[in-house]
């Protein structure tokens, strides 16, 4: 009787360990399957659109855009690629990182459309499109 109870206890222990091992494998890959990157991407896109759509584009380069504030208060905002991030900063100081983990990025301006192209550390390419309403209204 003792031997059979020990064998059953050992069998149950092995089964529990196998289930636990499979569960840990699934949990390990859960962050890869979540849509957090996509949600962060859309939030960043909305932030950029809200912040810059009405501001006047003052200076353009492939790595930096400088905007004058829409109320002509003299404040300028800079949207730029810096090190491994896309960030917003003011000329007076301080910055807000918007997207981190960027290997390369560039800006292109076509009429009232600003195209922000980024390649991340996983070699995935993506684009954001910003409509600059102030440019459209000034034409």
TrEMBL record:
Name this polypeptide is given: Competence protein ComGF
InterPro entries hit by this protein: ComGF
Superkingdom of origin organism: Bacteria
Species whose genome carries this gene: Companilactobacillus tucceti DSM 20183
């Amino acid at each position: 009787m003792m031997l059979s109870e020990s064998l059953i206890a050992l069998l149950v222990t092995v089964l529990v360990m196998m289930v636990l091992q499979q569960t840990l494998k699934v949990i390990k890959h859960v962050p890869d399957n979540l849509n957090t990157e996509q949600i962060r991407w859309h939030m960043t896109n909305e932030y950029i659109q809200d912040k810059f759509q009405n501001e006047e584009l003052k200076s353009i380069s492939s790595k930096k855009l400088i905007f004058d504030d829409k109320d002509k208060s003299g404040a300028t905002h800079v949207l730029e690629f810096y090190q491994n991030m896309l960030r917003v900063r003011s000329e007076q100081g301080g910055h807000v990182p918007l997207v981190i983990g960027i290997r390369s990025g560039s800006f292109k301006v076509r009429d009232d459309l600003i195209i922000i192209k980024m390649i991340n550390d996983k070699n995935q390419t993506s684009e954001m499109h910003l409509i600059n309403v102030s440019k459209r209204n000034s034409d």
